[in-house]
Specification:
The complex is a heterodimer.
Chain A lengths: L3 E9 L6 E10 L4 E5 L6 H8 L7 E6 L2 E2 L5 H8 E4 L11 H12 L6 H11 L4 H4 L8 H13 L5 E5 L7 H18 L2 E6 L2 H4 L4 E6 L2 E4 L2
Parallel strand pairs in A: 3-8, 3-9, 6-7, 7-8
Antiparallel strand pairs in A: 1-2, 1-4, 4-5, 9-10
Helix pairs in contact in A: 3-4, 3-6, 4-6
Chain B lengths: L1 H12 L1 H41 E6 L1 H6 L9 H8 L4 E15 L10 H4 L12 E6 L6 H5 L2 E6 L7 E5 H6 L7 E5 L8 E12 L20 E4 H5 L4 H4 E9 L5 H10 L6 E5 L1 H53 L4 H51 L9 H4 L14 H28 L2 H8 L1
Parallel strand pairs in B: 3-8, 5-7
Antiparallel strand pairs in B: 1-9, 1-10, 2-3, 2-6, 2-9, 4-7, 5-8, 6-7
Helix pairs in contact in B: 1-12, 2-11, 2-12, 2-14, 11-12, 11-14, 11-15, 12-14
Classes of the chains: A alpha/beta, B alpha+beta.
Chain lengths: 221, 452
């Protein structure tokens, strides 16, 4: 049973007739890690912005749990149903790691009684100790920021986790560590993880690998 | 609630930017507070004086007209004065009747100094006048009794016709006590009229003693005053020859003047009388305050316009910094209105702190600022009067001796506080407006992609 379905979606930027995505149809299931690969400019980030509700497709439709995304409150969808790990982290840099997580939980309307404790535990799970959690994000390394991004993406217990170049700027050890966390989320917690990357190393962790070429999606493995 | 908590944290996270905004808002609120506090006080004073001088009526003889032709001139009778007071247009009316009297069997204070002769015309036809009998419709007689400068120490206030009260000094001098009778007479030798008054009370007189007793006639000495009811005085036979009446009418609204004038004409007021309000006193007192109000209003408008422009510019610059933050919050699923509420909360908190500080400091510096301004305004008004061909526009007789205000007692009232709060709220909204517009205009993806 798919959690997310793309039905013949196409996309072109406003003012341009050139389609970045062409008639893509796909189904994403819970408990699996999907990796979408492609060269720069192939439309990887565009497809992520569509499935994460940051943008809308110009043709076709996307269904979340069987419901057309057009009839869903996209703000609510982003805050409750999906977690996005951005390539550029997109954390509040003036806030501490902990504050980023707690704020995300607040936005999603989390009912967790002790949000701070939950956030500390979550950060510890992705390898961020308490001392680091209390430091401002601006003072942390890229790897640490990426971990905080992951912690934030799962802080509200979403069904789908979307990761844009999750290991883009990281060293091999950190890359391995991050991918193991994502895999664990899919295989142990039944989350649907969709990662977009141009790294072949990342594809090793995928249950399904898809290639994006000239706006069309092809199954790789 | 988390939006408010996050707003508080955000203020601390962006200290330098918020301090700069706070300084600007503080300066605007401070200037606004001083302006509004002085302005509302000025307005109150102007309103009070406008009501006072615009409502208090004067019925004066038109001497110019009288000089030209006295044909048909008749004075106002007591009955007319009373009839003039019976009007729905009046808020209040007070009458005070006086009779200057001679003595029969008593002496006035300072009489032995020969002062009774000075002003009473030592001719063959007249006897010296020694005292004044005064009757007022005021229940407290006059301001001296009201303030306690004069107070009854023996007996009681007159209640009935032909009862009176005299001063303690006068009673001692003539060996009089409560219940005794005194005879007052007219000063006409050919037509002597005598009337007997019963002393119902004796009052202590602590009015300021005029040092120049040599040039003061005895009836001008307050300790020789005899007080009786208004009815007693106007019913004295002496009143017709030596009496006078002061009437004070106060209109319910200055705008009723013309209607009241017409009513007086209908009631028989002669054309030899002019009905007017005390415009000269009003101008003399209120002009400096009006000058301050004008300056303050201009100052307030300039401060608000300039301040708002600076705030908008600063907010526009600040929002460039905040674009990313807004994009992240929106990407995390925070609704537009909540992001806007967060920005507004931050600005309201900053403005609230500035409001408390600005209002406190503004209140304390308003008085010295007002003192300086009124001093300058009085000088300006005096200069403009002196420069009118060397003749003062307002002379003492015209202004009824009214003194211009030389100080403005500043007080913070609810109206001023409300206005300052409204201005502060507007400032907070103006400061947040750029950010709020930005949020409504752009989608998170666009904001983040621009940043990336």
């Amino acid at each position: 049973m798919s959690i997310l379905t793309l039905k013949n979606i196409s996309y072109h930027y406003s003012g341009s007739k050139k389609r970045v995505l062409k008639n893509i149809s796909m189904e994403f299931e819970p408990g699996k890690v999907y990796v979408i690969m492609g060269k720069s400019g192939a439309g990887k980030s565009t497809i992520l912005s569509l499935v994460s509700g940051l943008d809308v497709c110009t043709e076709g439709k996307i269904e979340y749990a069987g419901t057309d995304m057009k009839s869903i409150d996209r703000d609510q969808y982003r805050s409750k149903n999906i977690g996005v790990i951005f390539q550029g982290y997109n954390l509040l840099t003036n806030a501490t790691a902990l504050e980023n997580i707690v704020l995300s939980m607040n936005i999603s309307g989390s009912k967790e009684k002790d949000k701070k404790k939950y956030a500390y535990d979550l950060l510890e799970r992705v390898g961020i100790d308490k001392e680091t959690a209390d430091r401002k994000v601006l003072k942390l390394s890229g790897g640490e920021q990426q971990r905080i991004g992951i912690a934030r993406a799962i802080s509200h217990n979403p069904d789908i986790i979307i990761a844009d170049e999750p290991t883009g700027n990281l060293d091999n050890d950190t890359e391995k560590n991050i991918m193991e966390i994502l895999c664990a989320l899919a295989h142990k917690e039944n989350k649907c993880v969709i990662a977009v990357t141009h790294s072949k190393d990342v594809s090793k962790y995928a249950d399904e690998v898809w290639g994006l070429n000239s706006g069309s999606m092809v199954f790789v493995k | 609630m988390y939006i408010f908590r996050n707003a508080v944290k955000n203020i601390g996270r962006n200290k330098s930017r918020n301090i700069l905004i706070a300084v600007i808002i503080f300066v605007i609120i401070l200037a606004t507070s001083v302006s509004i506090i002085i302005n509302t006080t000025s307005k109150e004073i102007i309103d009070v004086y406008k009501t006072q001088f615009g409502s208090e009526l004067y019925i004066n003889l038109d001497y110019e007209k009288l000089k030209k032709d006295r044909t048909g001139f008749e004075g106002i009778t007591v009955d007319q004065y009373i009839a003039f007071g019976e009007s729905d247009l009046l808020k209040s009316k007070e009458y005070k009747a006086f009779v200057y009297v001679g003595s029969d069997g008593w002496i006035a204070i300072d009489e032995n100094s020969g002062n009774d002769i000075i002003n009473s015309g030592n001719s063959e036809d007249y006897l010296p006048l020694k005292a004044k009998v005064e009757g007022s419709t005021r229940s407290d007689i006059n301001d001296d009794f009201k303030s306690g400068v004069r107070k009854i120490v023996h007996g009681k206030m007159y209640e009935n016709i032909d009862e009176c009260i005299v001063s303690e000094e006068f009673a001692e001098l003539n060996n009089l006590s409560v219940g005794d009778k005194i005879k007052i007479t007219s000063n006409l030798k050919k037509n002597p009229m005598t009337h007997e008054l019963t002393i119902s009370g004796i009052f202590e007189d602590n009015t300021e003693v005029v040092n120049d007793h040599q040039n003061l006639s005895t009836y001008e000495n307050g300790s020789n005053d005899i007080f009786a009811s208004f009815e007693t005085v106007i019913n004295l036979q002496l009143y017709d020859s030596a009496g006078s009446l002061d009437a004070e009418y106060v209109l319910k609204d200055p705008a009723f003047l013309e209607n009241y004038k017409a009513e007086l004409k209908e009631k028989g007021l002669s054309d030899f009388y002019i009905v007017s309000t005390d415009e000269a006193s009003y101008n003399k007192i209120v002009k400096p305050v009006q000058g301050i109000a004008k300056i303050i209003n201009v100052f307030l408008i300039v401060v608000l316009i300039l301040g708002s422009v600076i705030l908008v510019l600063l907010s526009t610059l600040a929002i460039r910094e905040r674009k990313y933050e807004i994009g992240v919050l929106r990407a995390m699923g925070m609704k537009k209105r909540k992001v806007a509420l967060g920005l507004l909360s931050e600005m309201l908190i900053i403005t609230g702190i500035c409001l408390i500080a600005g209002l406190g400091i503004g209140t304390s510096i308003s008085q010295p600022v007002a003192d300086i301004m009124i001093k300058n305004q009085i000088e300006t008004v005096n200069d403009s009067n002196d420069n009118t061909n060397g003749i003062s526009i307002i002379n003492e007789s015209e202004s009824g001796g009214a003194e211009p205000l030389n100080e403005l007692k500043i007080s913070l009232n609810i109206e001023a506080v409300s206005q300052i709060i409204v201005v502060s709220l507007l400032l907070a909204v103006i400061s947040s407006l750029t950010g709020i517009l930005y949020i409504t205009k752009f989608e998170p993806m666009k904001i983040l992609s621009e940043r990336n």
